[in-house]
């Protein structure tokens, strides 16, 4: 079963961007995330529509943070990337007239809704500022500096 890691990836990119003075190109972000710059541009366009990032064209251009990290929650970012289902489980639908399948699916649907409601509530409790503070605590313990070009180098 394929898992959707877009939320994690977007949060990763945003925290790296917050550590960088100035704009960052899609190419630099894509290299760090080991993906194609087109994927980064597509994600960033959605974040721009919600006011979380802004873009600059031309020499020295790229993407930069445009929001207050203390006011943006993980749930806000989840919404900005299109509300992907936080649960990778799904119901079997091969025999919709089967009463057993109907009973199983009804029970699972109830559990899925409860789990999603709880997860979204928790995502609403965590701000980007809290994530950034956790990163800085970890960085301080390690005693290092943050250089995007080297932190993801293989």
UniProtKB/TrEMBL annotation:
PROSITE patterns in the record: HTH_RRF2_2
Gene3D superfamilies: Winged helix-like DNA-binding domain superfamily/Winged helix DNA-binding domain
Pfam families noted in UniProt: Rrf2 (PF02082)
InterPro entries: Tscrpt_reg_Rrf2, WH-like_DNA-bd_sf, WH_DNA-bd_sf
UniProt-recorded name of the protein: Transcriptional regulator
Domain of life, source organism: Bacteria
Signal peptide coordinates: none
Molecular function terms, GO-annotated: DNA-binding transcription factor activity
GO CC list: cytosol
SUPFAM superfamilies (UniProt xref): Winged helix' DNA-binding domain
């Amino acid at each position: 079963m394929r898992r959707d890691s877009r939320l994690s990836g977007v949060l990763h990119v945003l925290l790296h961007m917050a550590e960088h003075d100035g704009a960052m190109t899609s190419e630099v972000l894509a290299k760090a995330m080991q993906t194609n710059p087109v994927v980064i541009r597509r994600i960033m366009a959605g974040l721009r529509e919600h006011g979380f990032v802004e873009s600059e064209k031309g020499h020295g251009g790229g993407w930069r943070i445009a929001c207050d990290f203390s006011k943006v929650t993980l749930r806000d970012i989840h919404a900005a990337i299109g509300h992907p289902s936080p649960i990778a489980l799904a119901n079997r639908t091969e025999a919709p007239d089967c009463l057993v399948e109907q009973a199983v699916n009804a029970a699972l649907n109830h559990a899925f809704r409860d789990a999603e409601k709880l997860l979204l509530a928790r995502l609403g409790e965590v701000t980007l500022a809290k994530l950034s503070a956790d990163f800085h605590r970890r960085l301080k313990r390690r005693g290092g500096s943050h250089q995007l070009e080297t932190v993801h180098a293989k």
